[in-house]
Amino acid sequence: MTETPAALREHHHADVSGGWLRPAVFGAMDGLVTNIALIAGVGGGGVSPHTIVLTGTAGLVAGAISMALGEYTSVRSANEQIAAEVAKERQELERHPEAEARELADMWVARGLPEDLAIQVAEAVRSQPEQALRMHVQEELGVNPDEQPDPWKAALSSFLCFSVGALVPLLPYLFGATSLVLALAIGGLGLFVAGAVVSRFTNRRWWSGGLRQLLLGAAAAVATYLIGTLIGVQGGLG
């Protein structure tokens, strides 16, 4: 059977400009690592299961809100900066169209396009103001002004995914278990699964992606557990 070339298929690339994947990944991973580390830290200090649930729940709520606000502010600020640069480029195109066309042609020549052809294409683009603006922004800033991420989508993705990730290590306690080891094991499993799922959007093998996230989360949990144990012991001696 003859395979259809990717260039002839309508959707052969993943959507990398929608603004949801990065905050979703960061949110889920941050939620998992944050609460695994929190639970390991306070658990290492010898507190009661009720205190662990209280701490984990507070971490979930505070972290989810913080992540959402951070993502919204970050994406909104980036979009506003791009909008300001687009407005600046629009003014330059209106005031100095010849110089801007030559600048565009020079960039293409630097990439290996014959000079005559580069000038011809730049002049053709110049006759279409909106297309010229889009082309200049893409070439000079490396962004498409018509495909900027949605700050609300980024914030919601981050909030929901952080909440889900942070909930995972709390599940054993919410169902009545009191074992710190079990909670950390469930959290570790969540990290591995999340890393494996994310690897589907990349060229990384699923087990490699899962193992990477598991090791990173384990490092954070070990660090906070040791600190919690040290503080707990010192508190007991005091």
TrEMBL record:
Transmembrane ranges, per UniProt, are 154-175, 181-202, 214-237
Q: Which residues form the signal peptide?
A: none
This protein's UniProt keywords? Membrane, Transmembrane, Transmembrane helix
| Top-rank taxon, per record | Bacteria
Pfam families named among the record's database cross-references: VIT1 (PF01988)
- Annotated membrane topology: Multi-pass membrane protein
Cellular compartment(s): Endomembrane system
- Listed PANTHER family: FE(2+)/MN(2+) TRANSPORTER PCL1
The protein's name is Membrane protein
Q: Which organism is it from?
A: Micromonospora andamanensis
Classification of source organism: Bacteria, Bacillati, Actinomycetota, Actinomycetes, Micromonosporales
